[in-house]
Fold this sequence. Notes:
By secondary structure, the protein is an alpha/beta fold. The chain is built from 15 helices and 14 strands.
Amino acid sequence: MSIEAATVQDTYEKMLTKLERLVPAAELRIKAELVYEINRLKKERGALILGHNYMEPALFHTVPDMVGDSLGLSREAANTDKDIIIFCGVRFMAETAKILNPGKTVLLPAKEAGCSLAASITVDDVLKLKEAFPGAPVVTYINTYADVKAVTDICCTSSNAQKVIESLDDEVILFLPDQFLARNVANECGLPITIASRNTDGDINVDKNFTKGLVGWAGTCEVHEQFTVSDIDNVRRQFPDVTVLTHPESPPEVVAASDYSNSTTKMVSYVQESPLKGPFLILTECSMGDNIIAENPDKEILRLCSVRCPHMNQITLEDTLRALTHNEQLIEVPEETRVKALSSVERMLEIS
């Protein structure tokens, strides 16, 4: 995925060919210098750069060795022989790479790069839910921090959540923390669902008489929760033949109104493999729509660019270069937490 170029000018010309419809030429010329230096240092240091599908185009199409969704990048992190991993994504992703590679240097090119969904649930919340439903397995979305993964039985991603749930035969399953993903998976599996939440006193509100199905959590992604059926209706009025692709972190009614819903990587594959030329409406973080446009110049792609992830947008070429140069920001996971979290992540990878 990364650009191999002999000079900054070569780098610029390759970026211009790929991205001229998306990024002004003047901006590409400046960023080409950063890309060139990142690729030079990456090779010199023997580093691996992973790039999530939500990275801005000038980064996504130039410096990562591998791009994809959380599951694909987790697999790459588990299999790499590189000693340095730079994760162009948010913090929980870099933590997952560290969980899988305790002896490697894992760097996050941002000081924070958090996640509203990961921040919505704590270890204490999970323990209280386990107390309310003794023996119920805990399935935790990969979009959680390491300490929550450490009190989890198995992780999942949006692409394998249904498969993970169907691998369990328990009457009650705790499925945390995205309530919309939980509702969408419950619909797919034909299961009842109840949603738990934390009240102002820190206690858990949940139906303790619930005896069959999924117990979800009232967490959401601050990007995907903004999409509405009205968005889809408005686009369909303008583009009657539009094919709507939606991420399953979106509300169930939005997923139901769409033509296809799956992980970011499967959304990318859907567009690439479709015999249709479009238009396609991509309902997820706007940068991914840009990246699909760059890869499919012959297809018409629509996206709602008022909806951006403030956390993913913290990852820049400047900070990626700084991470390579100064080993910033170093990701550490306490060993006791890492070992416990590793079990839930490995079970996810085995099922996948």
